[in-house]
Amino acid sequence: MWLRRTFHECAEELEMVSQSFRTSFTKSSEVDQQRRDEILRDSSQKGVEILRVLALSIRPEQDYDEVFNRATRNIPVGALKCSASTTDVFDTINNYRPPYSQKAGFKQLGLRDALNKIAHADPSQSGFFANDVFHDLILSGKDQKGRIWIAIISIIDLCRAVKSLPDQVISRWT
User: Fold this and answer.
1) How far apart are alpha carbons 172 and 70 in whole angstroms?
2) pLDDT exceeds 80 at position 98
3) 58: which residues sit within 8 A by CB, 6+ positions away?
């Protein structure tokens, strides 16, 4: 595994993991099914780990550094439905097609909120959409009032947003 030293290095590694996942998922690689399944499993695990590192590293910086907030304020990385039903979650996971920006009933989701959703998502109520062009996560969870939310997060747009931040060394505690 790559030694992650900065936010930008994390984003670059996540881009490579996403590309590997998408290539295997769309069967555009010349490997057998068993190897393809291994790549999907390994890249998925690495991707989740990197997303957690980013969420736990960037969110605290955004709490105390206005530079981070200004750098990503207007960069959408996904879409959010603040109030959803369990049927909405099921339908979105099973029927979602990009782009997230055209999803009815959803609003734009910026980097900070996307990282919060990554940190608080219910892994048992999540999914994804992947092809040669898109790699979107579909996450859901509950807010403090118990309302169900759905977030669609583009891995590609999230990496772009992280790279727009001032680069910084990641704390050892992550």
Assistant:
1) 25
2) yes
3) 7, 68, 111, 112, 115, 162, 165
